[in-house]
Amino acid sequence: MSHSAGRTHLIEGIGNEVLVGLGGLLGGLVGMLIFVNQRRRQGIHPDNFANVASTREMLQHESEGGRNSQSPRASQRNSGELTCPICLGTAVFAVETNCGHIYCGRCIITYWQHQSILGPVRCPSCRTQVSLLLLNFTSQEHAAESEERQDVIDKINQYNRRFSGAPRTIQEYFQDLPTLLRHAFHEFFSLGGLMWMFRFRIGILVLAAFLYLISPLDILPEGALGIVGFLDDIFIIFLVAIYISIIYRQVVASRGT
């Protein structure tokens, strides 16, 4: 008599070991994304010390020259958790790069224009090519009506339209996943976030992946191959994650057009 005859399945037709494996797989994926995202340090790469120093000097001269005398920067600072490594102050109208580093909107724009406005800039912290800039404003900054806020948004939209479609390697797709998925997830559940068409596309992708994962018809069946049978599930999860990041990248690039 089979020992599994009296076993209770959490989902009819699906072995409990498969559900445990899927849970561990998804938990491992989330943990890996969190770990990769937290490892990114908010410092300046040694190769960029000189460029950052000259950019910092330019920003200081602008401030002393009174260009931003009407800017509400002092009253709209972040909580102090986000620090811009370029100006060494609290990030104001903060912007996050696709590699997960945060800067003041004006600081990263000035750094880009100081380096080469004709091409994408490399991140001052990790030297990754910045193909996408994501707004990371506070709720007060989102609601504020100021010239600096609008200027940052316009310049960020301009940057994304020009450089977000650059060819990318598989390694770069994986490196961008933690940041892009986090922003996509946040906007998916926010009222003023993604358009319903993109929410629908993402929802269909997630549903299709879930149905495949719980389906007994696998390319590599777990029952026959054991742990090796989860390789196709891992591939499907990463494929869906990358495709969601591509959809979100398209959404961000189309803003301001």
Automatic annotation (TrEMBL):
Residue stretches spanning the membrane: 18-36, 198-215, 227-248
Superkingdom to which the source organism belongs: Eukaryota
InterPro entries linked: DUF1232, RNF170, Znf_C3HC4_RING-type, Znf_RING, Znf_RING/FYVE/PHD, Znf_RING_CS
Biased composition (Polar residues): 66-79
Sorted UniProt keywords: Membrane, Metal-binding, Transmembrane, Transmembrane helix, Zinc, Zinc-finger
Domain RING-type stretches: 84-127
Xref: SUPFAM superfamilies: RING/U-box
Protein topology in the membrane: Multi-pass membrane protein
GO cellular component, one term: endomembrane system
Main location: membrane
Cited Pfam families: DUF1232 (PF06803), zf-C3HC4 (PF00097)
Region (Disordered): 58-79
Subcellular location: Endomembrane system
CDD domains: RING-HC_RNF170
GO MF term (any one): zinc ion binding
Record flagged with keyword Aminoacyl-tRNA synthetase: no
PANTHER family assigned to the protein according to its UniProt record, in alphabetical order: RING-TYPE DOMAIN-CONTAINING PROTEIN (PTHR22894:SF5)
Official protein name in the record: E3 ubiquitin-protein ligase RNF170
